[in-house]
Design goal:
Number of helices: 7
Helix content: 55-70%
Low-confidence stretches: none
Structural class: mainly alpha
Distance between the termini: 74 Å
Largest sheet: none
Strand content: under 5%
Order of helices and strands: HHHHHHH
Radius of gyration: 24 Å
């Protein structure tokens, strides 16, 4: 094994590639390493680990429900959703839930927005919450 490593490092040096071969191996944080490097994730993990078994099962059931609901969002919307700032989605989600809560779940809520990102977020939130939606592109008035 040592001979192969030396051989590969020799070829890498001839080609001008980093001796540690970092150029060939992209940096990647495993889920476990990201857990230890992010204090917020670590706090959530510690709460989970220190909870009793029944509480852990309830947390996991909620997570499963969230995953199932997330998968109900159409793939094209999910693909676009990743490029929208979290703050935008959070604000729209708060606004939508407040409107629906104030008006009642049988009501019709009309939201007008010119920004495509906001329309995508509204559709995603509605699909996640299982609201019926009708979204159209903005009309141009003369």
């Amino acid at each position: 094994k040592d001979n192969r490593d030396l051989f590969l490092k020799g070829i890498a040096a001839e080609l001008g590639i980093d001796n540690e071969m970092k150029d060939l191996m992209p940096e990647y944080n495993t889920p476990l390493s990201s857990l230890f490097s992010d204090p917020e994730k670590m706090k959530v993990w510690l709460v989970f680990v220190e909870s009793n078994e029944e509480s852990q099962e309830n947390m996991l059931k909620k997570e499963d429900d969230c995953n199932r609901r997330y998968k109900k969002i159409s793939r094209s919307i999910r693909d676009e959703l990743v490029s929208i700032p979290h703050q935008t989605v959070q604000q729209l989600e708060d606004d939508i839930y407040k409107m629906v809560s104030d008006m009642g779940y049988g009501s019709v809520v009309v939201m007008v927005t010119k920004a495509k990102a906001e329309r995508v977020a509204i559709i995603a939130i509605s699909q996640y919450a299982r609201f019926k939606t009708l979204v159209s592109s903005p009309y141009k008035y003369n």
